[in-house]
Amino acid sequence: MTRIILFNKPFGVLSQFTDKGTTGSARQTLSEFINVPDVYAAGRLDKDSEGLLVLTDNGKLQARISDPKFKTSKTYWVQLEGEPTDAQLDQLRGGVKLKDGMTRPADVRRMDEPEGLWPRDPPVRFRKSVPDSWLEITISEGRNRQVRRMTAAVGLPTLRLIRYKVGEWTIEGIENGTWTEG
């Protein structure tokens, strides 16, 4: 039977079980939160991103979630520096030209800050003179730091990035830093 773990990854945690970085680094890994044998992350979240990470012991499922050819949707809550204009939202919705080519169109909607959102450690650094706002962005590919690069390309730097949903799985009811069986 396939095992699925849904983990609400905290900021600063690597999406792997070991740190192959420089000797003596003290970066947190999945092994500090999940003691389940033979499960591996289906896709990645960079260490500066938070939220849903799906892990499984099923290689075919892992590939289906992470390989862009299967177009598994991923929904993010994105805190931005600035207030998006309709033109900026239309750019995100139509696809954004990045150095590695055009992105697929994204579903984008304005949203309020999510209710009950856990505090980030360390906190987001704000500029008093620049407002911040939130978007919900759903993409169906998974390029390296794609959402951050998309928002930056339209002039809206990402302050905080939380993956809320992968396919049909969400972080609903999963406290930050904890996991549940999917």
Structure description:
- This protein is α+β, with helices and mostly antiparallel strands and about 180 residues long.
- The protein has one domain (about 5-170): Alpha-Beta Plaits.
- It contains three helices and eleven strands, in the order βββαβαββββαβββ.
- It has helices at about 60-65, 85-95, 145-155, and strands spanning about 5-10, 40, 50-55, 75-80, 95-100, 100, 105-110, 130-140, 160-165, 170, 180.
- The strands form two sheets. Strands 1, 2, 3, 4, 7, 8, 9, 10 and 11 form a nine-stranded mixed β-sheet that branches. The protein has a two-stranded antiparallel sheet with strand order 5-6.
- Strand 5 (about 95-100) and strand 6 form a beta hairpin.
- The longest helix is centred in the middle third of the chain and has 9 residues, at about 85-95.
- It is globular.
- The relative contact order is 0.26.
- The model has no long low-confidence stretch (mean pLDDT about 90).
From the N-terminal CA to the C-terminal CA, the straight-line distance is 12 Å
> Which stretches of 5+ consecutive residues score pLDDT under 50?
none
Order of helices and strands: EEEHEHEEEEHEEE
Strand content: 25-35%
Q: Under CATH, the topology is which?
A: Alpha-Beta Plaits
Q: Would you identify the CATH architecture? A: 2-Layer Sandwich
The value of Rg in angstroms is 16 Å
Counted beta strands: 11
- Looking at CATH, the homologous superfamily is Alpha-L RNA-binding motif
Estimated helix fraction: 10-25%
Tell me the number of structural domains. Answer: 1
- Outline, from the CA principal axes? globular
Counting helices, strands and paired strands, the structural category is: alpha+beta
CATH class group: Alpha Beta
Q: Which whole number gives the mean pLDDT?
A: 92
DSSP helix count?
A: 3
